[in-house]
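User: Can you predict the 3D structure for this chain?
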Amino acid sequence: MTEDQGYDDGLDELTGADGPWDWDQIPADQDFVYYGPLRLPAIAHMKVRAEIDPSNDKCGAVSVKIADCQVQLQVLAAPRGTGQWTQTRRTITERLRPAGEIHVTEGRFGPEIEARLTRKNKQGEDVMIPMRFFGPEGDRWLLKAAAMGPSVHEDSTRERIADFLSRCAVERGPQPMIAGTVLVLDFPRFRKDGDEPQTEQAGADSAS
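Assistant: Here is the predicted structure, written as structure tokens:
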């Protein structure tokens, strides 16, 4: 079921902006929920899941419900003066191509990976898994978004995901990091108007 069909993802009347922003360039009228270096737009009923790596008890990603999709967000370090999405996109494509059909298409933030993967379900039957990867970039960071859900390739869902990403912000920090390093996230530290997003903890299940 898509947003147009009445799916409630908790994001209300989401509209696009001109982000994602570097933290020192955010508009003055925007409020955020802090997940360490990743800042999500402060939407009271947003459905968020923190993904915890059981090997170190650290959070490397959060997943947000958008339309009928789960969108996993990670912040990766990027080299100064060059992007990280090209290399990351190549790595994702090479890893996924044996499992299904892969295309690269243009989107709001540049190239996107459109994937239709074939996997076995518990009954041993082949099922098709639609996925889409977005890679908006900023100053020495990449915001990687891996989306999975029935309508992920529909224009309305793609636009809704892009609208959400355009309202995020990243505080990369000055410390040197190897390109491609996944930044550790924190649990939310900010509440707006007495509400807070619906945040759950889950074991790490990276789509990257």
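The chain has two helices and 13 strands. The helical segments are 85-96, 155-165.
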